[in-house]
Design brief:
- The complex is a heterodimer of chains A (342) and B (163).
- Chain A is mainly alpha-helical and 342 residues long.
- Chain A contains twelve helices and two strands.
- Helices cover 68% and strands 3% of the residues of chain A.
- The longest helix of chain A has 37 residues.
- Chain B is 77% helix and 0% strand.
- The chains are: A mainly alpha (342), B mainly alpha (163).
- At the A-B interface, helix 4 and helix 5 of A face helix 2 and helix 3 of B.
Chain lengths: 342, 163
């Protein structure tokens, strides 16, 4: 393949991923509202389109047409920069997550991942740690105490939970002996999913993912009764929408990451024994990836509408005194397993 | 000029310009933001040199850890006092003399050193060889650094507890 072809193929992949992300983010909001309605025995949005299916487009149009207000006390350049950073980082993370096996298309052998990076998992961790900046900057630049407190809370929370997240990932890496997402998926063939082999690591990672995405029960950065809206209190119009989109995009990425690291990625156990054609197998596997991801997203929303919010000190002590030691225990457990069976 | 040179100059420009902005802006938050760009530029240069692990660790440690702590300190103290912290320019003459001397020394070394350059294969990944080196040859230094960081952590905690 020449360099031009690689560039074109990569652009097509980026286009597909971004379109899919934007669509799934807006429909995730719709499903969040629907599921919350079911949980609370309501009907939910049902006016725009059949069963309210066009509601996301109406919401986006509403936000686009609203006036963009920047407070006087705000630092304008950084106030504008923060939502851009949030979106760019959220979408950039998806570049290394594989959604399926390599397929033959139009005579090319195409990997179903935008960038096949050999340190992909570290790339994801690096981008999540940069994601803190978007929130910190937005909190600081708004010139409001609620925003500042929300921003500080959020960054403290993310930094704390990054540690247990990193140690949980270390367990996965010990098993796969590689930082490349494709190798990590390949190391979980059959029923050897990491969620089954290292359940403690799976639990600590999922809890940390909830904290990293600022979802309930850990949504203290925007705890409404205390902080109005948290770090995006002073944002309106499309800038607010950017934060909103980034939050849901982060949820999708967290689910995709959990699927890749712990639930066998796109793999369907023992599908090669069914004797299907290569194309059909690939199609089923890509489908399996999205089914797993959808189930996790449902879990995210389900938890939000079932559990109450933690207090801030409870959140911090859970992170440092429970999740961090547990992730260390998991690391030792995996090390012993690898010692015994390799 | 091939594509590697172009990318090198791109990252080099980002690094140098943002580093200049770090020291020349008056607003300390802008400095922090530009420092982030500097780290990005350096990480890009590392990737270009085939040091993938180093590049990502540069981002995780400096951008994700150290810089965010600086920002935290600035943000919180900034609002508590009710007045913005601005960096001031003082002692221009001694500073320029020191920096000029230092730059001269570095430049002299740079010009007079006989740089060795060997053409090698581009390594697919540097992680395995790095890990082996750290765990075998440099294990003592590695562990000592770990102890040093632990001491720093305990020291910080004990200072914070007293107040």
């Amino acid at each position: 393949m020449g360099i031009l072809e690689i560039i074109i193929i990569t652009f097509v992949k980026i286009l597909i991923i971004v379109t899919m992300m934007l669509l799934s983010v807006s429909y995730l909001v719709y499903f969040e509202r629907k599921i919350s309605a079911w949980t609370q025995n309501r009907v939910g949005p049902n006016r725009v389109g059949y069963a309210g299916l066009l509601q996301p487009f109406a919401d986006v149009f509403k936000l686009l047409l609203k006036e963009d207000i920047v407070p006087d006390a705000a630092n304008k350049p950084i106030h504008t920069l923060a939502p851009i950073m949030a979106l760019v980082i959220a979408f950039g993370t998806y570049a290394v997550i594989p959604i399926g096996p390599a397929v033959e298309l139009f005579g090319y052998n195409i990997q179903l991942v935008v960038a096949d990076v050999n340190i992909g998992i570290l790339y994801v961790l690096a981008l999540t740690s940069i994601g803190v900046y978007a929130i910190t900057f937005s909190g600081w630049s708004s010139g409001s105490k609620y925003s500042l407190l929300g921003g500080v809370r959020s960054s403290a929370q993310m930094i704390s939970y990054e540690i247990s997240m990193g140690f949980s990932v270390a367990g996965v890496l010990l098993f796969s002996e590689s930082l490349r997402p494709l190798d990590i998926v390949a190391s979980q063939s059959g029923w050897m999913w990491n969620a089954i082999v290292q359940p403690i690591g799976f639990i600590t990672f999922v809890v940390s993912a909830f904290a990293e995405t600022n979802r309930l029960p850990f949504d203290l950065p925007e705890a409404e009764p205390e902080l109005v809206g948290g770090y995006h209190t002073e944002y309106s119009s499309m800038k607010f929408a950017a934060f909103f989109l980034a939050e849901y995009a982060n949820m999708i990425i967290a689910s995709a990451l959990i699927v890749t690291l712990y639930l066998g990625g796109w793999q369907v156990p023992y599908i090669e024994m069914a004797g299907l054609s290569a194309g059909l197998t690939a199609l089923i596997q890509v489908g399996a990836f999205f089914v797993k991801m959808g189930a996790l997203l449902f879990f995210f929303i389900w938890v939000r509408w079932s559990l109450p919010r933690f207090r801030y000190d409870q959140l911090m002590s859970l992170g440092w005194k429970v999740m961090f030691p547990l992730s260390l225990v998991n690391l030792i457990w995996v090390a012993v397993l690898v010692m015994l069976f390799n | 000029m091939n594509i590697y040179d172009l990318i090198f100059y791109l990252f080099a420009t980002i690094t140098v310009l943002s580093a200049l902005a770090v020291v020349s802006t008056k607003n300390i938050i802008y400095s922090a933001y530009n420092l982030m760009l500097t780290f990005f530029g350096v990480a890009g240069l590392y990737v270009l040199l085939g040091a993938d692990f180093l590049a990502i660790v540069q981002l995780i440690v400096y951008v994700g850890g150290i810089l965010i702590l600086i920002l935290f300190g600035v943000m919180l103290t900034n609002k508590v006092n009710g007045m913005p912290i601005h960096t001031e320019v003082t002692n221009i003459i001694p500073a320029s003399i020191t920096i000029g001397l230092f730059a001269g020394i570095v430049l002299a070394f740079f010009m007079n050193t006989n740089w060795k350059s060997v053409t090698t294969e581009f390594p697919a990944t540097t992680i395995q060889s790095l890990g082996k080196l750290l765990m075998n040859e440099y294990i003592l230094i590695f562990e000592l650094l770990g102890v040093l960081l632990l001491i720093a952590l305990i020291g910080a905690a004990s200072i914070a507890r007293k107040q």
